[in-house]
Here is the input.
Amino acid sequence: MFDAFLTYGERILRVSHPSCWGGYALVTAVFLSVSGCIIESGPCDECDCNENGDGSGGYAGGGGPSVVRATIDTGEALETEYGKGVGVFIEVEQGGRWHVFTTCDTLESGLPCYFNVIATLPEGATYENVVPESLEKGEDEIATYSDGLELVTVTREGVDGMYFDAPAGQVVRFEVYWDGRPEARFIYWVGDGAVHHGAPTNPIDLLPSEP
Here is the structure.
Protein backbone atom coordinates (compact mmCIF):
# COMPACT_ATOMS: atom_id res chain seq x y z
CA MET A 1 0.00 0.00 0.00
CA PHE A 2 1.31 3.43 -0.96
CA ASP A 3 0.37 6.42 1.16
CA ALA A 4 1.74 9.92 0.68
CA PHE A 5 0.76 13.57 0.95
CA LEU A 6 0.88 16.12 -1.86
CA THR A 7 -0.13 19.77 -1.85
CA TYR A 8 -2.95 21.11 -3.99
CA GLY A 9 -2.47 24.85 -3.84
CA GLU A 10 -2.61 25.41 -0.11
CA ARG A 11 -4.61 22.23 0.36
CA ILE A 12 -3.64 18.79 1.60
CA LEU A 13 -3.96 15.97 -0.91
CA ARG A 14 -3.53 12.39 0.22
CA VAL A 15 -2.54 9.81 -2.40
CA SER A 16 -3.16 6.20 -1.42
CA HIS A 17 -3.40 2.69 -2.80
CA PRO A 18 -4.91 2.23 -6.26
CA SER A 19 -8.28 0.79 -5.29
CA CYS A 20 -11.32 -0.47 -7.11
CA TRP A 21 -14.15 1.80 -8.24
CA GLY A 22 -15.95 1.74 -4.90
CA GLY A 23 -19.57 0.79 -4.46
CA TYR A 24 -22.20 3.49 -4.26
CA ALA A 25 -23.94 4.05 -0.96
CA LEU A 26 -27.54 3.13 -0.27
CA VAL A 27 -29.00 6.44 0.84
CA THR A 28 -32.28 7.46 2.43
CA ALA A 29 -33.42 11.05 2.74
CA VAL A 30 -35.15 11.83 6.02
CA PHE A 31 -37.70 14.42 4.97
CA LEU A 32 -39.73 16.52 7.35
CA SER A 33 -42.71 16.93 5.03
CA VAL A 34 -42.42 14.43 2.15
CA SER A 35 -41.70 10.71 1.84
CA GLY A 36 -38.08 9.53 1.75
CA CYS A 37 -36.26 8.72 -1.47
CA ILE A 38 -33.80 5.85 -1.80
CA ILE A 39 -30.92 5.74 -4.26
CA GLU A 40 -29.60 2.26 -5.09
CA SER A 41 -26.06 1.37 -6.10
CA GLY A 42 -25.43 1.68 -9.82
CA PRO A 43 -23.00 2.72 -12.54
CA CYS A 44 -22.19 6.36 -13.12
CA ASP A 45 -24.32 6.63 -16.26
CA GLU A 46 -27.37 6.22 -14.01
CA CYS A 47 -26.56 9.24 -11.86
CA ASP A 48 -26.41 12.98 -12.45
CA CYS A 49 -22.64 13.29 -12.25
CA ASN A 50 -19.50 14.11 -14.15
CA GLU A 51 -17.38 10.93 -14.20
CA ASN A 52 -14.17 12.88 -14.76
CA GLY A 53 -14.87 14.97 -11.68
CA ASP A 54 -12.35 17.60 -12.71
CA GLY A 55 -11.67 20.14 -9.97
CA SER A 56 -11.25 23.83 -10.61
CA GLY A 57 -11.10 25.37 -7.13
CA GLY A 58 -11.68 29.08 -6.58
CA TYR A 59 -14.16 30.98 -4.46
CA ALA A 60 -17.76 29.88 -4.08
CA GLY A 61 -20.63 31.79 -5.59
CA GLY A 62 -19.09 32.79 -8.89
CA GLY A 63 -20.50 29.85 -10.81
CA GLY A 64 -19.26 29.89 -14.39
CA PRO A 65 -19.09 27.27 -17.12
CA SER A 66 -17.07 24.79 -15.04
CA VAL A 67 -18.95 25.06 -11.73
CA VAL A 68 -22.67 24.33 -11.36
CA ARG A 69 -24.73 25.97 -8.63
CA ALA A 70 -27.41 23.69 -7.14
CA THR A 71 -29.98 24.02 -4.39
CA ILE A 72 -29.57 22.08 -1.15
CA ASP A 73 -32.76 21.71 0.87
CA THR A 74 -32.39 23.30 4.29
CA GLY A 75 -33.21 21.03 7.21
CA GLU A 76 -33.20 17.75 5.28
CA ALA A 77 -31.01 14.85 6.45
CA LEU A 78 -29.44 11.81 4.80
CA GLU A 79 -29.07 8.29 6.21
CA THR A 80 -26.90 5.46 4.90
CA GLU A 81 -25.45 2.13 6.01
CA TYR A 82 -21.87 2.65 7.16
CA GLY A 83 -19.22 0.43 5.61
CA LYS A 84 -21.37 -0.66 2.65
CA GLY A 85 -20.93 2.17 0.17
CA VAL A 86 -18.69 5.10 -0.78
CA GLY A 87 -20.14 8.54 -0.25
CA VAL A 88 -19.65 12.16 0.77
CA PHE A 89 -22.87 13.47 2.31
CA ILE A 90 -23.71 17.16 2.67
CA GLU A 91 -26.50 18.66 4.78
CA VAL A 92 -27.38 22.15 6.00
CA GLU A 93 -29.65 23.31 8.81
CA GLN A 94 -31.42 26.63 9.24
CA GLY A 95 -29.05 29.35 10.33
CA GLY A 96 -26.17 28.04 8.21
CA ARG A 97 -25.05 24.99 10.19
CA TRP A 98 -23.41 22.59 7.70
CA HIS A 99 -22.73 18.88 8.19
CA VAL A 100 -20.37 16.89 5.95
CA PHE A 101 -19.60 13.20 6.49
CA THR A 102 -17.98 10.33 4.61
CA THR A 103 -18.56 6.57 4.36
CA CYS A 104 -16.71 3.73 2.65
CA ASP A 105 -17.45 0.24 1.27
CA THR A 106 -14.87 -1.41 3.54
CA LEU A 107 -17.22 -4.22 4.60
CA GLU A 108 -17.51 -5.18 0.93
CA SER A 109 -14.02 -4.34 -0.41
CA GLY A 110 -11.81 -4.78 2.66
CA LEU A 111 -10.14 -1.46 1.82
CA PRO A 112 -10.31 2.00 3.41
CA CYS A 113 -11.31 5.17 1.57
CA TYR A 114 -9.08 8.24 1.59
CA PHE A 115 -11.13 11.43 1.32
CA ASN A 116 -10.33 15.11 0.96
CA VAL A 117 -13.44 17.30 1.11
CA ILE A 118 -12.78 21.01 0.63
CA ALA A 119 -15.45 23.56 1.61
CA THR A 120 -14.83 27.09 0.32
CA LEU A 121 -16.77 30.26 1.10
CA PRO A 122 -17.10 33.38 -1.08
CA GLU A 123 -14.47 36.05 -0.58
CA GLY A 124 -15.23 38.02 2.56
CA ALA A 125 -17.48 35.35 4.13
CA THR A 126 -16.31 33.58 7.28
CA TYR A 127 -16.94 30.23 8.95
CA GLU A 128 -16.88 29.34 12.65
CA ASN A 129 -17.78 26.71 15.24
CA VAL A 130 -15.96 23.85 13.50
CA VAL A 131 -16.69 20.54 15.24
CA PRO A 132 -15.19 17.14 14.26
CA GLU A 133 -17.36 14.03 14.03
CA SER A 134 -15.83 10.63 14.92
CA LEU A 135 -12.35 11.61 13.67
CA GLU A 136 -9.41 9.43 14.70
CA LYS A 137 -6.24 11.09 15.92
CA GLY A 138 -3.30 10.47 13.60
CA GLU A 139 -5.48 9.54 10.61
CA ASP A 140 -8.14 12.21 10.25
CA GLU A 141 -8.02 15.97 10.52
CA ILE A 142 -9.76 19.22 9.66
CA ALA A 143 -7.43 21.74 8.04
CA THR A 144 -8.52 25.38 8.17
CA TYR A 145 -7.72 28.15 5.67
CA SER A 146 -8.61 31.79 5.27
CA ASP A 147 -11.37 30.98 2.76
CA GLY A 148 -12.60 27.61 4.00
CA LEU A 149 -11.70 24.27 5.49
CA GLU A 150 -10.80 20.73 4.47
CA LEU A 151 -11.89 17.40 5.88
CA VAL A 152 -9.12 14.79 5.48
CA THR A 153 -10.16 11.27 6.45
CA VAL A 154 -9.33 7.59 6.26
CA THR A 155 -12.81 6.08 6.42
CA ARG A 156 -13.56 2.41 7.01
CA GLU A 157 -16.63 0.81 8.65
CA GLY A 158 -17.77 3.96 10.41
CA VAL A 159 -18.38 7.59 9.57
CA ASP A 160 -16.01 10.58 9.61
CA GLY A 161 -17.28 14.11 9.39
CA MET A 162 -17.38 17.73 10.45
CA TYR A 163 -19.84 20.49 11.31
CA PHE A 164 -19.29 24.18 10.67
CA ASP A 165 -21.26 27.42 10.62
CA ALA A 166 -21.42 29.74 7.60
CA PRO A 167 -23.56 32.86 7.16
CA ALA A 168 -27.23 31.88 6.89
CA GLY A 169 -28.26 31.33 3.27
CA GLN A 170 -24.65 31.54 2.05
CA VAL A 171 -23.55 29.44 -0.92
CA VAL A 172 -20.67 27.05 -0.14
CA ARG A 173 -18.42 25.40 -2.72
CA PHE A 174 -17.52 21.74 -2.19
CA GLU A 175 -14.70 19.85 -3.91
CA VAL A 176 -14.19 16.12 -3.31
CA TYR A 177 -11.16 13.86 -3.77
CA TRP A 178 -11.36 10.09 -3.25
CA ASP A 179 -8.14 8.07 -3.11
CA GLY A 180 -6.24 11.06 -4.52
CA ARG A 181 -8.55 11.61 -7.50
CA PRO A 182 -11.19 14.31 -8.01
CA GLU A 183 -14.53 12.52 -7.78
CA ALA A 184 -18.02 13.93 -8.36
CA ARG A 185 -19.73 10.53 -8.44
CA PHE A 186 -19.94 10.03 -4.69
CA ILE A 187 -21.37 13.42 -3.64
CA TYR A 188 -24.86 13.21 -2.08
CA TRP A 189 -27.26 15.96 -1.03
CA VAL A 190 -31.00 16.63 -0.96
CA GLY A 191 -32.17 19.32 -3.39
CA ASP A 192 -35.63 20.23 -4.67
CA GLY A 193 -37.13 17.35 -2.72
CA ALA A 194 -34.92 14.58 -4.13
CA VAL A 195 -31.64 12.88 -3.28
CA HIS A 196 -28.86 13.83 -5.70
CA HIS A 197 -26.41 10.97 -6.29
CA GLY A 198 -23.35 12.45 -7.96
CA ALA A 199 -22.64 16.08 -8.80
CA PRO A 200 -22.66 17.54 -12.34
CA THR A 201 -19.36 19.31 -11.62
CA ASN A 202 -16.56 19.05 -9.08
CA PRO A 203 -16.41 21.51 -7.41
CA ILE A 204 -20.10 22.26 -6.99
CA ASP A 205 -21.71 25.31 -5.37
CA LEU A 206 -24.56 24.46 -2.99
CA LEU A 207 -27.07 27.18 -2.10
CA PRO A 208 -29.43 26.56 0.84
CA SER A 209 -33.12 26.65 -0.06
CA GLU A 210 -33.78 28.71 3.08
CA PRO A 211 -31.46 30.82 5.26
